[in-house]
Write a structure and sequence with these properties.
The protein is of the alpha/beta class and 261 residues long. The chain folds into 2 domains: 90 residues, no CATH class; 130 residues, Rossmann fold (3-Layer(aba) Sandwich). It has 11 helices and 11 strands. The chain has a 5-stranded parallel sheet with strand order 8-7-9-10-11, sandwiched between helices. A 4-stranded mixed sheet has the order 3-4-6-5, sandwiched between helices. Strands 1-2 form a two-stranded antiparallel ribbon. A hairpin with a 4-residue loop joins strand 1 and strand 2. The longest helix has 15 residues. The protein is globular, with a radius of gyration of 20 Å. The mean pLDDT is 88.
Length: 261
């Protein structure tokens, strides 16, 4: 049940084409539904424009599948992050439209009548090893409704590579930059363009990188203006924030703004 669906249901009750008992049955599972091991927040799509996103780490295959199936029954669209292929196969057994993105480990089911993507989000990775986190950001922003482009392996060890992407940087409304090791690329990008930059530190690197902490601190201490930083490996959070920035000022009735369970 989203805002449009709720408005339609209330209008039908007002017009007398839907009975009050039928409407109450439709609303029975709001605001949340107790599955025993999870309480699904069915109001979230009304509040934020997109259903709950499943964070799969720590959940069993059966739990992920059960939550996914109920979300699809209610909303017709799905994003599950950090999912295994086994989880994907379980979801796909009842949701043939499900697609698995192996690099980002995301399960996606797009709404049957999804609107055309808007704006432009550019997702950049410093190295090839940073692509999984970058892909999580790209997949997230894409299913929310943003037009997404990518430029991968353009780190500071060869600055000519990011300079060759200057036109793409200038064309974007917002730029997501994932980088591990020294974590310098977001500062370089932030110094090249007057666009908001979302920096994502990754846990890629040798011992002194402290599993991404060194990159995080570098990004937090960036001297480039307009750089925001999300948590280590949090491609999902970067994708959501990028989409919200990208769609500010658009004429869409509701901007999808999900959060994970």
């Amino acid at each position: 049940m989203n805002r449009e669906g709720l408005s339609k249901l209330l209008s039908q009750v007002q017009a007398g084409t839907t009975s009050i008992p039928h409407a109450l049955e439709e609303l029975r599972h709001l605001p949340y539904e107790n599955l025993g091991f999870a309480r699904m927040d069915n109001h979230r799509t009304i509040r934020q424009g997109f259903p709950e996103v499943i964070f799969c780490e720590g959940k069993t295959v059966e739990q992920v599948a059960a939550i996914a199936w109920r979300l699809l029954e209610r909303h017709g669209t799905l994003l599950a992050t950090r999912a295994s292929r086994e989880m994907y196969e379980a979801v796909k057994s009842k949701a043939p439209r499900a697609v698995y993105h192996p690099l980002s480990r995301a399960i996606v089911v797009t709404a049957p009548r999804a609107p055309r993507p808007v704006g432009r989000v550019l997702v950049v990775s410093a190295g090839t090893s940073d692509i999984p986190v970058a892909e999580e950001a790209a997949v997230t922003a894409s299913i929310l409704g943003s037009r997404v482009e990518t430029r991968y392996d353009v780190g500071v060890a060869g600055l000519h590579r990011i300079l060759d992407a200057r036109s793409a940087l200038e064309a974007a409304n917002v730029i997501v930059v994932s980088a591990g090791m020294d974590g310098v690329l977001p500062s370089v990008v932030g110094g090249l363009v007057a666009k908001p930059v979302i920096a994502v530190p990754t846990s890629i690197g040798y011992g002194a990188s402290f599993h991404g902490l060194a990159a995080l601190l570098t990004m937090l201490n960036s001297c480039a203006a307009g750089v925001a930083v999300v948590n280590i490996d949090n491609g999902f959070g970067a994708g959501v924030l990028a989409h919200r920035i990208n769609t500010l000022g658009t004429k869409t009735k509701r901007t999808p703004q999900p959060s994970r369970r």
